[in-house]
Amino acid sequence: MTDFGGSAPGTPDGGPGATRADPLQQDADRLLADDPDADDPDADDPDALGLGITSPSSGVLVVTVTGELDMLTAPQLRHEVTRRIPDSSLVVLALDGVRFLGTSGLAALIELREQAHREGVELRLACTERRVLRPIGIAGLHHLFDIHDDVEASLNS
Fold it and tell me: Which of 5, 36, 75, 78 could serve as a FRET partner for 21 with CA atoms 20 to 30 Å apart?
């Protein structure tokens, strides 16, 4: 057996049985214990979908969407909004925080619009960002959505 460092790690004299935790590991463990997002792999992922859901008044739902809206994240948006549509008269999707809008995201928006219309609920989009409006325009979907510059304009229209 080869000895690479004299004493055994964590033992002051290298003798068996004496243990002391690695100070670097202790620091890492302490930092992880103090970090509420340590167990959340998406906490620092700028591409993860973020949804902020508020109800500024009875029957009004505002969903602030951030991150990427693509094939991995569109089902989450669809699920969270779909289950709230029956209790709403107006749903506003605030999309300025969306950094990428893929075809699955477009499909989710269309599906939400269709469900809202079937239930007699108005769906409005609040967005001025080219990275969101351009895919909607390229796909020829502008006519399907009531698009406003911000949430306040969406709520007051």
Answer: 36
* Burial of 108: CB neighbours in 10 Å, binned 0-12, 13-18, 19+: buried
Q: How far apart are CA 76 and CA 115, in angstroms?
A: 16
Query: Is 87 contained in some domain?
Result: yes
Burial of 48 (0-12, 13-18, 19+ CB in 10 A): middle
pTM: 0.72
CA nearest neighbour of 109 among 138, 67, 143, 74: 74
User: Residue 78: inside a domain, yes or no?
Assistant: yes
Task: Look up the CATH number of the domain holding residue 55.
Answer: 3.30.750.24
Helix/strand/coil for 101: strand
Domain that holds residue 106: 50-156
The answer to whether residue 31 is domain-embedded is no
In Å, what is the CA distance from 20 to each residue of 2, 30, 103? Answer: 22, 16, 54
pLDDT tens column, 78-96: 999 999 999 999 999 999 9
